[in-house]
Structures are given as C-alpha cells and as structure tokens.
Prior knowledge:
Layout lengths: L1 E4 L2 E4 L4 E4 L2 E2 L4 H12 L7 H9 L6 H14 L10 E4 L3 E4 L4 E3 L26 E4 L3 E2 L7 H16 L5 E2 L2 H4 L9 H8 L3 E10 L2 E10 L4 E11 L3 H16 L1 H6 L12 H14 L4 H17 L4 H16 L5 H18 L4 H13 L3 H14 L4 H13 L3 H14 L6 H14 L3 H14 L4 H13 L3 H14 L5 H7 L5 H14 L3
Helix pairs in contact: 1-3, 3-14, 4-7, 4-9, 9-10, 10-11, 11-12, 11-13, 12-13, 13-14, 13-15, 14-15, 15-16, 15-17, 16-17, 17-18, 17-19, 18-19, 19-20, 19-22
Amino acid sequence: MAFQFEDFVLDPERRELRRADSLVALEPQVFDVLTYLIRHRDRVVTRDELLDAIWNGRVVSESTLASRINAARRAVDDSGEEQRLIRTAARKGVRFVGEVTEQRKAMAAPAAVQPPGGTEASPPLPERPAIAVLPFGNLSGEAEQDYFSDGISEDIITALSKLRWFFVIARNSSFIYKGRSVHLRQIAEELGVRYVVEGSVRKEGERVRITAQLNDVATGSHLWAERYDRRLADVFAVQDEITENIVAAIEPQLYAAESFRAQRKPPDSMDAWDLVMRALSHYWRVTRQDHVVAQALLEKAIALDPNYGKALGLLGTSYMFTAHMGWMDMADAMLRAERAALAAIRADGDDPWAHNALGHVHLFARRFEDSLAEFETALHLNPNFALAQGYYGLALSYCGRWQEADEAARRAIRLSPRDPYAPVYFGIAAYARFLGGDYEEAIRLAHEALRQRSDFVGAHRVLTSAAGAAGRTELARAALAELRRAQPNISLAWIAEFMPIRLPADRDRYLEGFRRAGLT
C-alpha cells in the first residue's frame, strides 16, 4: 500500500518517497518517522510512541527526535514555521495533517546500486541527472598553481552537490583523470554519468580567466561553453555563475521553477581560501604526513579568518580521522576536533563539513544518537557528500545496525567509485559484514581495501579479527603481523578503550577475533 499526498508518493514496501518522478533521499529513521505519522494520521502521535516504534524504546535525546521530525518536514517541503503537513501539538506530540490517498499502484524501481567489490564495471546511470566535473587545467605555466585550478573545480562540485536533483560524482573520483588524456566517453562510462564538465584556469597577477564547457557525452554535443575574465577578487561570483549555467543547460524546466544559485559563504580573506585549497590537496592524499601538513595550513587559514566554516569543519574532520587511524592521541584529537566543529557550526551552520566533523566527535564520545543526527544533517545539506555517507555507515556499524551500515558504505562507493578514501568505505563495509557474522565476506572486503591501500589501518584491524573469528589461523596471524606494522600501539586494551562499539556483544566478539589471532 502506497500513500499519495500533494505531489508526493510514499511506498513503505519499497521504502521510497517520490515527488513527481524524482526520488527523494531519506535516511532510514527519517523515513520510518514519516511513515509512522502518515499511517497514524487520524490522531496526534506522542513522543513516547515514536520512541517505541522507531527506536524500540531506547533513550534518545530530545534534539535527536526533533532532528528526525525536522528532516521529515524538509523532505516533504514543509517547515517548523509553516507546518503545512506535519503539525506539532504543544506538549502532546505530532500529527500528519495532509490529505492522503491510499493507492495500490506500484512505483518504478530505483536505479541499481553498485555493490562493494564491483567498482571495475561501469556503474549504472542513476535516475537523477548524473554529472562529473573534471579537474580544471592549470594554464598558468606554474605547477605550484595546481591547487588554485583544483580549488575552482572542487568549489563547483560542492555547489552542484547541494542541489538534490543532481547525482554529482565526488571530487576524488573525477580527479583521477587529472593530467591524463582520456576520451570523454570512456570517463562517462567509468564514472556512470551522462554529463561531463571540463575547463581551464589561467591565473596571471590579480586577474583570472576561467573557461568551462558542459558536454552531453551520450549525444557527443556541447550543451554550453563560456569564458570568464575577472579580477581575482570576483572568483566566487564566477563560480556561482558557472554553476547556474550548468544547471540551466541540464534541467531547463527545473531552472524555470527554482532559483539554482548555489548558496555559499566565501571567506573574508582570499588568503584564507588559498590556504584551504592547499590543505585540501594534502587532505585527499590520506597519509599521516599529509594530514599533518593539512592541519597546519588550516590553522593558518583560521588565524586569518576565524569564521571560515569549511576550514574549521575540515580541520575537525582531519583530527578525528588521524586519531581513528592511531596516528594521534585520541583525547587530544577529540578536544581539538570538538572545538573546531562547534566553531564551524557557529560560523556556518549550513556547511556539511561542520556537521561531518561534529558527527565524528559525538561518535567517539559515545554520544551515538547525536552522532547519527549530525551525519544525517550533513547528508541533507549535501546528499552527494561521499565522505559523510561513508562515516555515517561507520557510526551505524558502531551502533550495531550493520545492515544499514552496509547500505551506507555501498552508497559512498557509488557516489565516488574511484576515490583515495574508497579503502575506508570498503573497510566500513567489511566491519558491517563482520557484525552480521559473514566473516568470509568481511575478509574479502578487507582484502579489497588493502589492495587499494596497503597501509589502511582500519582494514588491517577488520581482516585480523574476521580471520580469527573464522578460524583461519594462518591468515589471522599474518594479518596481525601487518596490523602491528601499520599500528604499533595496537592492543586489546586500545581497541576496548578507543573504538566506540556500542553493544557489549559486538565488542566482545570483535575482541575475541583478535585474541584468536594472538593479540594481547
């Protein structure tokens, strides 16, 4: 049974919410809240009812419940002020007040999702317009200016990603083509897109020339091309203009109905922006030393512009990643990361990096519901944020919700099928499968992560425990030896103290796998 209201259709069996012909992205708990309210639309639903139905009676904060209700409102184009469809009854609860028609007609199935382990095949085209932005060429004649042209490309990707009707390939996958001569059709097939944006940047003194072109690879036609000559200080307006023109070329009917200008908050200082672009070029290399360099650059950017939300959010995320990898003291990292994340949200509450950073902090502080809420907010702000999608999966896995964690990891891999962080996503999927008792699949996924990145500590940890749990003694001992090389301070005590595994049974089983491998 599906439910139709206004121009929406909600199908509980397929777990889909559609508006006209478009699929609306919803996190699992938000979908469950909306479904429960619609099914019980004849009355006010109390807070306790929602807790029993959605959280099985678990204690969660008021802010977590409110965030799910607010997310449900946003999904159906409602708000706390308007309350056109979801209305709050003071001190009583919430009620769905829209006019609903029940229907039996099935909706179209969603596009297939590329499963972990299948990244070599061409991904299927999603239902939303799929687009990749290639790294803009640096025509300045100075290799050290690469970060500037990369930054232009990345900001356009970010702006497009905020538009929910697009499927935007993540930066790390499109940037693998940097400096390579590859036919656009091959790129489109490998990334699973129809549209490709390419361009160049020439920076000379205080002026910059940006050229951009939008290609429909399926037809071989150029939909749009433009050249911009501007003063360097106007670069942010140029990016917004390019983004708006790309959107207009792909979906003119949507452009007529909506204002597509990307909302962004440029930093007060161009020097700060320069530093963040340089930091990002190190951040995406995923090494210990590069994260140290990125953190130093970000600290400099924040010193110049203390209210630069993206710089603060990226800094907090970097601190938590290095701590999780065992490269930094966890207590020190959490203190620094929380300070940066909270400052990021104060500076720019609409920046997904800020919520991504705070989600990490909450997770390792074992504030699990708050962590999930922050990752969901990051994904609402940028549905194509592969990194947040992957770490949302990590949070779900640490909460014991391994099926949802596995799905989130799959989405991260699909959003960015060729990515320096892909080993992280495979490692998350491997841990989810471990929790589900599928040790052989966990081993396979961990091996895939290590094939891509042999120094990824998280995959070494999962491989060691999964091999131990599966009784594969020789593999477990070999994996433990590699783990000790990657993380010399690893011990059962470290895992128990620093890995925020919520359920005692999950933690005990994970530790037992390490014990069988020989870890003490």
